[in-house]
Amino acid sequence: MEVIDYGCRIVRICVPDRNGNLTDVVVGYGDIASFETGSERFFGALIGRYGNRINGAEFELDGKRIHLTPNELLDGKSVHLHGGTKGFDRVMWKGEPVTEKERVGVRFRRRSPDGEEGYPGNLDCTVTYWWQPDNTCRIEYEAVTDAPTIVNLSNHTYFNLKGANGGSIMDLVMQVNADHYLQNNTQFVPEGGPIPVAGTPFDLREPHRIDYALDRPNRQIEIMSGFSVCWVLRNSSGALARAADLYDPNSGRGVEVWTTEPGLLTYTGRGLSEKIIGKNQIPLQQFGGMLLETLHFADSPNRSDFPTTVLRPGERYRSVTEFRFYTK
């Protein structure tokens, strides 16, 4: 695994296929200039302070209206996306190598100052990327604040189990431990409560090709122009639990996603194209990577029915996600 301190990013993970051949399965850029100025700003990055969207770029906290930086306009309305114009992906982090028993990693630290992108409170963040001997990438997130604020950290790595330039991932096989998903409105935030997956293209309780039901009429697919959805995971206890499995039958590579988070957001790289030059100066292609973002739900600060993302002084934000790679 390789990580960089600009944007606290994962830029490379090499895992074996069923024959033992190592291949990089992380899709993205191969040089720092592209990470800084390329059209796809989130490749591999830490997302914060708030992953996904907040409708209207505002919310109420303890009776006070908080106004965030609006950095996206959807259907004529402003939205705050992935921490704003200068989110955690656009800054330098201080990294140090760490070793513990049989695993190694890098621990990144940064203080997000009070008022950054509109967020209240100084937020001290620590993110540790571990590489473990069983081919597991473990991400540990922690944060503390000196004033009430909101936190929803995630990682934005695109995976392709065929290889970084392996082509479309739509024929990979996926299974998700979720009985419900969230239906978006035209601002790409949930418009209601959880919807049963039964009878929808998002019924992946049993393994299916990702595109097995894309031709089935579905409002979420129409709004998002494809297979982009946030699942409500069965486990909402905060304990580390299995969320999903993604598998490539051709290479035998697979990855299990385990998380303490209540949601799993997937995106199949609809916005990727040959205009984006990836690693080894090879153009990417549409649907060339899969996001497996573990996080709290979009617009949670405006939804009292969703798990809270509020962090107060004296509390500690903790979140863990593991990508457990395997072959069969």
How do the strands and helices of this protein lay out in sequence?
Elements: E1 2-4, E2 9-12, E3 14-16, E4 22-24, E5 26-27, H1 32-37, E6 46-47, E7 53-55, E8 58-61, E9 64-67, E10 72-74, E11 77-81, E12 94-100, E13 103-112, E14 123-132, E15 136-145, E16 149-150, E17 154-155, E18 158-159, E19 173-176, E20 178-182, E21 195-196, E22 208-209, H2 219-224, E23 229-233, E24 241-247, E25 253-259, E26 263-267, E27 290-295, E28 310-311, E29 317-327
Antiparallel strand pairs: 1-2, 3-4, 5-18, 6-17, 7-11, 8-9, 10-11, 12-13, 13-14, 14-15, 15-29, 16-28, 18-27, 19-22, 19-24, 20-21, 20-23, 23-26, 24-25, 25-29, 26-27
What is the terminal-to-terminal distance?
21 Å
Indicate the structural class. mainly beta
- Portion of residues in beta strands equals 35-45%
Strand order of the largest sheet: 12-13-14-15-29-25-24-19-22
- Helix share, percent: under 10%
Question: Could you name the key traits of this structure?
Answer:
2 helices; mainly beta; 328 residues; 4% helix
Architecture overview:
By secondary structure, the protein is mainly beta. It is built from 2 helices and 29 strands. The strands form 8 sheets. The protein has a 9-stranded antiparallel beta sheet, with no helix packed on it. The longest helix is centred in the first third of the chain and has 6 residues, at 32-37. The model has no long low-confidence stretch (mean pLDDT 97).
